[in-house]
Amino acid sequence: MDRELYFDEQQLKKFKAYTIVTKIFTYTFLIILALFIIIPFYWMIATSLKTTAEVISQNISFFPRELTFASYAAVFERAPLFTMYMNTILVGFFTTSLTIVSVIFAAFAFSRLKFKGREVIFSILLMTMMIPGEVFVITNYMTVNTLGWIRVPEGAPLHEIIGNYAAMILPFVGSIFYTFFLRQTFRQIPNELYLAAKVDGLGDFKYLFKVMVPIAKSTIITITILSMIGTWNAYIWPSLVTSSSNSALWLVSNGLNEVFRSTIELSGPNSVLNQQMAGSALVTLPLLVVFFLLKDYIMKGVSRSGIKG
Amino acid sequence: MLEFKKDGWKAAIALGPTLLLLSVFTFYPIINAVLMAFKQDYVFLSGTYNGIGFGNFVTILSDPKFLDALKNTSIMVFISVPLTIILSLLLAVALNSVKKLRGFFQTVFFLPYVTNTIALGLVFNVVFHKDYGLFNSVFGLELVDWLGSGTTYWRAMFVLMVYTIWNGLAFKIIVLLSGLQSIDKQYYQAASVDGANRKRVFGKITVPLLSPMILYVTITSFIGAFKVYTSVIALFGKGAGQTGAYGPDNMLITVVGYIYEKLWASGTPFGVAAAGSIILFIIILLITLVQFWISKKRVHY
Amino acid sequence: MKKFFIVLIMVFGLFALVGCGGNESDSVFVDLTEEVKGSTDEVNIKFRVPSGVISAALPGLIADFNQVYPQIKVELDAVTGGYGEVRKTTILDIQSDKAPTLVLGYPDHFAEYFSAQTIIKLQEYITGPNGYNAEELADFVESYLDEGKNFDLENPNDIYSLPFNKSTEVLIYNKTMFDAMKEIDSAIVVPKTWEELKTVSEKINTLVENGDLDDVITIAEGEKKPSEFYTEGTFYPFAYDSTDNAFITMTRQRNGGYTEKVSNDKGYIVFNSPENLAGLNYFKAENEARRFAVAETFNESYASDAFIALKTFMTVGSSAGIGYNIPEANKFEIAVSEVPYLEANSDNKYVIQQGTNVAILAQSTNKQRAAAWLLLKFLLQPEYTAKFAMATGGYLPVRLSAYETTEYSEYLVNPPIGKEGFSMAANVALGYLDGGYKFFVDPAFVGSSGVRDEVGAIFTAVIVNGKDPQERIEKAYQTLGKAYQKPE
Predict the structure, then answer these.
(1) Architecture category of domain B65-298 in CATH
(2) Does ipTM top 0.90?
(3) What residues have CB less than 8 Å from C259, skipping those under 6 apart?
(4) What class, spelled out in words, does domain A81-259 have in CATH?
């Protein structure tokens, strides 16, 4: 487009040169920063595949001289990885399902239903989003303790175990952020659709499930994905709420932390760097795989949550 | 208005479960936190306290450890957040201007968003290792201790900032990039007709049109960064509640870390922890309000 | 869709059931030991301990207990994460009605429990039909028994906790190295005083620097020799493991003051004194002269790791922790000696008394309390406290007559394989009393563990991070707050 304004040959050449130089700069900039991002991942995997001798040798190797999966085996022995994965998936699944259900209803109420004080209540809820989690954590900790839902020891009866899971799930089900996000999407559904449905004799709740939800599908999927990622990366709350003695209930983050704290204590901090990395990899990779499969949804969803804000 | 009454019922059903959960896990905790914060010398074990007053707040504000935590957190936030925003803005613009490989770069830059803070903290711990770390090798530094007992304040802070920036780019780039892409091309066309050069286009068109996005990113970044805690624990690799969890002599203790330390201190002073969380809230509120006030002049809708 | 909801609601309903069924407790205390002894009705009690050597040693002893009292079922609750976790879980459990019957803990944990009125006055059992008479009470090591007193200001002699696993500090040294060094320089001996340590350390450094000791002990591939550590700057002849203990012992040996207990809930800090300042400056200088270190100096959590790696030849650590100082495949021999004292102040040959005590929690029925008391009485018999000490290795029997039992005397002279180190430590510990050393303990009050952590941090900050002692002490005073300052 700009070219149309430059009729002179010389100016055209200058312009071309300028463009090329800028492009080179831009690409270089992008590449350097991309490397900055990738290097920790690379280092994690490379170190995890090195033998211990190589890790602590004086000359550092950028590429493992000898590939070994021994660290991974060791981590599998030390950490109940399978249990940790299952727990995280379980907790994530329940948290997410319950959240979706409650959020769909709540967003519906705040966008489509008319009732007294709707906007006031919603504004109050929004304000609570600014309050840092720590304010809630203390009391919630006390609450779930009184209910007997935390630090359930090994071999405890089933209802206690369910309680422990409940402690990890319930506090997060009422999510105001996701309600807000879905409400935005719901609001964009044109009124005509509602009126048409009314004409067809559709009740409000049927309208919600038959019309609104399918339209808002991609938002709901985004919420699902974000919620699962949230559980995968949760640390503070699960570590408060599960016992360090009972590994059967560990989630992925606090489990990793527990195992490495005790590993480092047992064998000294320097000799298990490759296991540390293997552990990190085992925790990071599953989510990365999921990310690559769903990346468009995830990135679009996150960007949309930004714009609406 | 028949509609109001009718929907009132439905709203109650629809909102019922959510409100119930919110009452237990959101509203009640807020009230309880405020109550506990004012119960002086509140002991969790016995539930006893010494009258209502500002005692807990005084304890916190006169505790040099809290002031350290505040200093540490502030330094971290006020240096790393602006840096991250500027960097992500540049990256978003760069991404926006390249056609080839944009998808590839976007994916790469988004990776940190889906990674686990603890896991990656451990990775940085290894990268910055004194004896076997990548950083020391690449830059030819012998045995510089970044995160061990021989580290200095600024070295450890440097690593923390690198980690925070590394983690923080993803979200901001995505939001800013989609913001850039949604700027109507007409503005650019008008600018080129007027013969504006790139810098002016950037300064007078791009940034102002992007300003709501920038504001959003700035506010959320400051709020998120102020709550720094898990990153510090992850970097030093000692686990919460251990000695040296925040570095040697707990040099990098943060405000949130301070709150959690208070929970299990001798005498279980949950009241002090609650007061701490309220102070944290007030700080975040103030920072956000200041940003809104500044934004009045700068942000265009 | 509907089915999904029904399931959800059912799950919710299940949650409501949880949280029912807490502990029963009797609000009025009655000594039911006779009744429990005589009846075959089952009583269930829970004993919470940290997981490790204690939880490994107890089952055998409890089995013996059950031979006498089969009707008392003891559940051993081993908690990982040390005494900190024991305290945390117990506090949370008390709040949610799941408290154990018996728990081990440090004196200041018990100060907290007492403050919330959650532990039983053991004095009632002691003066009851199944208690201890004067002779038996005198058979307890006096300073151990004292830790269980002074809870109630009005009745300071009422006992609320009994000693269970006690230990002390000893000096562990690399015997192989010392033998070799003595060959080269006969003046190198295991130091008994700090002044002696100065000279001995200096000599050791010279030998290490010259590489004279590099071949004394064969080391594995990739491991470093002492002279290499020296060149790197990571070799120190002597290391003090616990910085809290280092500071506190220093205050005793130099008469600098540490804390003053006012009541169970209150105490003052009095460690800002010229004597303590001199002590800190002394150790700081020694560290700068490369003669003295602490665990963090080596970037290790424990000095024992440095000891095994040959970065240091002497460490002061708990008698219960000897096991950590024994190298793999018996790379070298270890031996035990006394903690150094200050020659200039030889009246203050103080060594710290450590370890935990046991108490019975009030969230229990009188029957459970009685059963718990019977368990305690059994485990604290001379024969059994000796068995416990031998099984765990580094703890000391709490009854004086235990030292005279045939088994224990044999242990001191002829220890079984693997327990040589512990036996040596026990001998040294016994020797303290004969050798004019004095055990000391600073009376606990709510918050005293915070003070302990803080002084440990002071020591580390001064030695490892080069902070100024006076400043750091003042900062500690500010951190601990007004509540701990003695009014002028």
Answers:
(1) Orthogonal Bundle (1.10)
(2) no
(3) C267, C268, C269, C270, C271, C442, C443, C445, C448, C451
(4) mainly alpha
